[in-house]
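The material for today's practical consists of a large collection of protein records. There is nothing in a record beyond a sequence line and a structure line. Backbone structure tokens are a discrete shorthand for how the chain folds in space. Nothing more is needed to start thinking about how sequence determines fold. As an example, a complete record with its sequence and its structure tokens follows.
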Amino acid sequence: MIEWWTSKEKRGQATLYSSNITLNKIASVPFEFAYRVQVGMDENKNIVIEPIAKERVERGDMDEYNLLEIKIKPSYSRICSTDLMSFISKAIGVSLGKDPVKYETEWEEENNHLVILSGKEKE
């Protein structure tokens, strides 16, 4: 029997800095066509990022001040906001400075969002 390799088995990774969240290529895939993102925190203190389409923003039923730009590059994507990172730092109790903090990510298809597993810090 042959067991074929699949990229779906690879885990995404998020790196937190004091000014941004950087997602590796695997974690970035669901955001390739996102116009903006909404970032929040679940009850387990995991960071949740939801892609938002331009059509949804244009409907006018969302507060645009709560939506953030995501910059997509060939090998990573980035969400920049020092206010957001300050909120995250306090909420999960991690000091964000010049040394990055890395976490695994998980795409939740049924909820259409990426979860940064804040309770599972990687070396």
Summary: The longest helix spans residues 82-92. Helices lie at 25-28, 54-58, 82-92. The chain has three helices and nine strands.
